[in-house]
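Make up an example, fold above all:
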Amino acid sequence: MKLLLRVLFYTVLVYASYQLLAGLMQKKPQLPKVLQDYADNAMQQYLCKTPVSWRIGQLDPAFDLTLEQAEQAAHSASMQWNQAFGLELFRYDSIDGFAINFAYDERQQQVLQQALLQRNLARYDTNINQRVAGLQQQSAQLQQQQRQFEAQNQQFAADVAAFERKVQQASLDRSALQREQQQLNQRQQQLQQQADNLNTEQQRLQREQQYINDTVADRNALLPQQTTEVAKTEVGLMEIRGKQRVMTIFAYKTLTDLQLTIAHEFGHALGVGHTDNPASVMHAALNTQQSRLTADDIQALKAQCDL
């Protein structure tokens, strides 16, 4: 009987322990979330409060890029962020800095080439549209001036005819006729000067029209290289594993574009995500509107790092 009670007691004890353990397992998600939030906050403080050291790592010869050029592009990109905040967010460290690797990717290089073609076409179109608009405005002004000149010329012809009739009248004062003749000569000289100016302006507008035609021809010469659609691709990648960072550059066309790409990945190195403004460096895709950090980039980092 005592043995049976003892077995029953242990059975109840094991069951109660199982129920307690089950209850603890049900509450398990709350603890990891607290720890995750703490880890996220700690990581955010680490990313934002500690200057990020960088260096040039592997440099694929396929890029035809020197170490000095790569370092200069990275220096220029880091200085954009440092100067924007007046803080040393990034610093060069040839030994302990995280690696900026250059790994040539032919597919991404070709896609980037297509994107840059679109960029060049956009620049052509902007220039052409501005010149055409200016030419139209100037042509309208010239036409108005020509109409005014024609009216003045007709009035002058009528005044000359009236003067000739006066000359035939012997009773008129000769001195008055001489003064009027001098005035007509002066008007004739002024009209001739206006005619010369109008002809010069017309020739200038013709040269401007020819320039626009040549620019359109140069722009259209690029079209056979253009594909119907430009695919999106990552020309750079920023990886953060714990406190370790690695940046990889897959493609670039010009040193200016390379600097923008590195500046974009530096933003990711601080935990900044993509912005909606196409002109901002942290926009998802390289485009013609980007040149330097914008207010959107600065605000994104302030929000991320509570600066």
Remarks:
- The longest strand covers residues 52-59.
- The radius of gyration is 39 Å.
- Residues 1-40, 225-232 have pLDDT under 50 and may be disordered.
- Helices lie at 2-26, 30-49, 67-85, 106-167, 174-221, 255-269, 295-305.
